Amino acid sequence: MLFSSALIDLIIGDVTQAVIISAAIQILYIGLVVVDSNLPDDDCLAGLIAIPLALNTGFSPTLTISIAIPVGV
């Protein structure tokens, strides 16, 4: 997710805020354990949707997490 946030940084230009938001979303997915090759959540999709949305609207990282959860599921 940090790599995809780096690509978003190049487009939008707010490096520090994108890394902070990306790290906050990644915390949700650190404990994700794949059982029987069934991956119920997509952290990359959640980041690719939530990070640009948060950077363009000025959302806080905590509000961005609440946006990223439904997108990732």
Kindly describe this structure.
There is one protein chain. The chain has 73 residues and is mainly α. It has one domain. 73% of the residues lie in helices and 0% in strands. Helix 2 (15-29) runs antiparallel to helix 3 and helix 3 (43-57) runs antiparallel to helix 4 (61-72). The longest helix has 15 residues, at 15-29. The chain is globular and about 40 Å long.
Percent helix = over 70%
Query: How many H/I helical runs?
Result: 4
Structural class computed from helices and strand pairing: mainly alpha
Extract low-pLDDT stretches: none
Principal-axis shape equals globular
Q: How many discrete domains?
A: 1
Distance between the termini: 16 Å
Query: What proportion strand?
Result: under 5%
Number of strands: 0
Mean pLDDT: 78
Order of helices and strands: HHHH
* Biggest sheet descriptor: none
Q: What is the alpha-carbon Rg in Å?
A: 12 Å
Provide tags for this entry.
73 residues; mainly alpha; 4 helices; globular
Short description:
This protein has 73 residues and is mainly alpha-helical.
